[in-house]
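Lab notebook, bench 4. Continuing the backlog of folding jobs that were queued last week. Each job is logged with the same field layout so the records can be merged later without manual cleanup. Today's entry covers Myosin VC, a 1252-residue chain. Filled in by technician R.K.

JOB TYPE: sequence-to-structure
TARGET: Myosin VC
LENGTH: 1252
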Amino acid sequence: MALSELYTKYNRVWIPDEEHVWKSAEILRDFKPGDDTLQLQLEDGTMLYSLDTSSPQLPHLRNPDILVGENDLTALSYLHEPAVLHNLKVRFVESKIIYTYCGIILVAVNPYKQLHIYGDAVIHAYSGQNMGDMDPHIFAVAEEAYKQMARNNKNQSIIVSGESGAGKTVSARYAMRYFAMVSKSGSKTHVEDKVLASNPITEAIGNAKTTRNDNSSRFGKYTEISFDRRYQIIGANMRTYLLEKSRVVSQSESERNYHIFYQMCACADQPEFKSLRLCEADEFRYTSMGGETAIEGVDDRKDMEETRRTFSLLGERHRSFLSLCRPTSRCLPLCRPTSLCRSTSDPHIAAFCDLLRVSPDGVTRWLCHRRFVMVAETVVKPVTSKRAVNARDALAKQIYAHLFDCVIQKINAALQVPGKQHSFIGVLDIYGFETFDINSFEQFCINYANEKLQQQFNLHVFKLEQEEYMKEDIPWTLIDFYDNQPVIDLIEAKMGILDLLDEECLFPQGTDQNWLQKLYNYLADNPLFEKPRMSNEAFIIQHFADKVEYQCWGFLEKNRDTLYEELIDTMRTSKFPLLANFFLEEEPGGVGSKGIKVRPARPGVKPTNKNLRTTSVCILSMYVTLFFFQFRSSLYLLMETLNATTPHYVRCIKPNEEKMPFEYDSKRVVQQLRACGVLETIHISAQSYPSRWTYIEFYSRYSILMSQQELVLTDKKQTCRTVLQRLIQDSNQYKFGRTKIFFRAGQVAYLEKLRLDRLRGACVTIQKHVRGWSHRRTFLRMREAAIILQQYVRGQRRIRCETGKRLRGYGWAAVVIQRYWRGHLTRQIFRMVRSSSIIIQAFTRGWIARKRYKKVLCCVLSEIDLILLYFSSCVSVNLAHVCNCPMFADLKPRGVVVNMIPNMAAQLLFMCVRHADYLNDGAKLKSLMNAIISGVKKVITVTDFELLSFWLSNMYHMLNCLKQYSGEEEFMKQNSPRQKKNCLQNFDLSEHRQIFSDLAIRIYHQFISVMEKALMPMIVPGMLEHESLQGISSMKPTGFRKRSSSIYEDQEIYTISSLLQQLSLYHSTMSQHGMEEGLVRQAVKQTFFLVGAATLNNILLRKDMCSCRKGMQIRCNISYLEEWLKEKDLVQGTSAMETLKPLCQAAWLLQVNKTTDDDAKEIIEQCSELNTVQIVKILNSYTPIDDFEKRVAPSFVRKVQGLLQDREGGSSQLMLDTQYRFQVTFPFTPSSQALELLQLPSSLRLGFITRI
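JOB STATUS: finished
OUTPUT FIELD FOLLOWS
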């Protein structure tokens, strides 16, 4: 179906709007080829949308509501800018979800609010999951990178970018925290903690308050986390890019300098900082230029304590930290004098020189004077006040830049631990594309770096798209996408912007205006370069994201990064080693260094003409470092690193300028989407087949459109092909892949329209028949009443009564005859069936008995011999040999043997104890008990469920025997006289009872852990993903990030039946081993808690599971679990169903109405086991499956939140702790079994055991 054919009545489109960027409108009349207008209905009235008749450009179609709010933007049928913008808004504003996939990109919208989605429980929930199995999250991206590194043995990179204040630093920090958590090593170096500890330090020296962000990173950072062959962290390395040095000496209104300055000033009164001679931050010009020295909600003094703590965590001494603070603090007094005086009497200059241990004369002289080298002589002249201030600022910037690099080096040194790196994951936290009212050198560098990153991103997306087609065996067609290579050439090619900038910097008299004129001359013909109409001091570049106008002033000075050599020489003479090392000469040829000394290459040659000797050539002695050359070199190195890794992209979005929580400014968001490559990804996907469904998704969703003949086909893949070919005639609108169906734009929306029409038609048919039945029933009742009235009126009722008497007489005789005849036939049949049943039962029981007897003999010979071989040496004579017997870990009776001798091992062990007590042999008793304890300890570490069950049951029974025969009154109340007589006489074993109790507890916890490990993979597929209610499908498209479970993958598919079978297996094993009923109930309760907690946690982290239909499926599966408890007679005494209450209430919450005030009150009353965070999360995540369902209104969610505020106590955690263990108890249950009457079957060949 052609796209233009979808512009029909009732469909909706997007039209441009100045305020909201895009506005939705409904089509009032079908569009036909040749129409010059499109009649639309807006919220505020109708309008005619004019079209260009020569080439009509129809407005973008709007996706059906059922597709809006999806986890992945590529799941949308129509892929374009308004669809992306609207989908993000619905998720962010209505569902309070900040993460969304866009193909390979994770879009993260800053909520400006603390969320409960970053706890350790959430990390464990995402660990091991495939991409797309859970809701979008930064942890999902980190897990994918970690998994690909381990699976493909290839290095990975996570590229986090965005505007200042978009949340880049926080996202990068959470990614590193995830790696530190999931790859925890056993090393004593605690390198994971050191990696996380580096963040507060780098934020202190590299972050500052700006107008857009209170904690803005003013540098780019690439953190390379190293892993060994076991994929555990063994170290890290950090590289930084483009530190904003100008901020040290200049800040805009309402901005601050770097945090470290304010942290030191806040601690100026502390003894260790008094030597730095600091005072309040507002007394220094460098820290008060922005007008604000404090940030609301930030305690600089407390932050300094955190900085010092993390610095010590990296292994640095306190003295080392103070030595780094000295040059930092000395930047501040430089700015205090209003004008630089030419003597050493200025107290601030003196303080600066004293702390940094440099010559006051040299500093004062070369801040205020310059040396000019001429042909015949060298002249020192004073400079203007402006130049002196520039020199001061240059020195401060240089000192801080060196300090920053020094701290990074110390961090890297601390993060290096012994061990060889096997692979690494790099986390790049870098600035996004920037455009301001006034753009200067810093914005030019940032946007140039983003051009390089965007080029790498485009090529990677294009490559992945091509690989997807090849994997699905679909012919690859060339896709037209934006290539920004011309912009990069404009900047870095020969005679480009950078080349001309470097050339102008080499001239001592070079100026910004001269350089700009060269740009106008050489680049005038380039279509990506423009000269502003109203300015001769700026130039315009057409970047991939937008046009940006740059002011040329300051480009040369910032690129030169000039510091005069006389001042450098003065710094080199410092007696403070750290400062002197800062200004050591760099070795030539170093990577990233380009220093140009502008001074005579050799002594000047005296002119032969004396007249010419009076002419002098003046050369200023200075050291020029071309900043952009260094930046470009480090950027090339970064690109090489990224190209050698598998990249993962996180794009951070700033939703509004006011930093209001969950407020969405469409204009600001769309600017960032254009700038960060999200829309380019959409553009590439939309070029060919953007919508992609697996065959099982298509079959489940559109089975309603299939005929009966198509539904009976066993090959679902072929059924999908047949149905699609019938519904969409144009085969070019879709392609069949190996595991997926690829659709052109709009085709899924067309299928949704057909599905909705079919459902609407079915609803009409049902309504028609129900209404007809209702009217017919009413009519028949009225007719019957009328007939009765007529009978009375006409006198017919009496006649019918007389006739009825005669008929009833005949009828009664017939009934009597029938009764006797049917009874005779039934008795005959019963006798025949009973006789046959008895014969069948006799033969069957005999066959079963013979089979069981044979099985008993086999099992006894192979396994029980091991037990009795052990006891043969301890019961008769050699009890001391018990301690050397290693068979405890191998004892595991199976099959019907356990039914014959439950807990026999415990009984025989206790008989040995009684024998040692009878002999009054303490040494033998001690040896025996030690042997038992050491043997049982071996069982604790095994993962065999049957072995653990067997020994848990026997240890519990052994503990009961020690109590029952201890001689203590409280345990002898139910003993028989014979049992009382046989109690222990010589030894008190109460201490050993405690030891056995502890061992039993440890076995129990291992027993539960083994059960949970086996059940965990079954819980989510069985309880959530498997649709036990046939005909109620809740499946929807998932976009690029497909779920891992598919009928075409070679993996076991778990259902609720699989879960129940596993539970039954556990229960039967425990029963066979004679486990006490109370212990079985405790294990079942713990297991049911795991099922409920894991299922609820998955619901809270998966938006696709929050629907009415899914609630019905969950409630059905819970009823299966309840039936299982009833079948096993475990309902009473286990409280197992109590542990499922939170899950039951969550399922109820998904199904209940969520509209009125009464609904809100009912939710508060019914959901008593769910806390506020969980209820709000489920309401926000509720997702309709069909157009007949409605989303939960934000006003309703706020209403529920308001009512929940009155709740007292309760947890604020989003997730339930699946590792929680109920306290296990071992209640005393005396046995009526007299041990001296224990009979061992002769078939077990235990004749060597003698009765004493």
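OBSERVATION: The two ends are 93 Å apart (CA to CA).
SIGNED: R.K.
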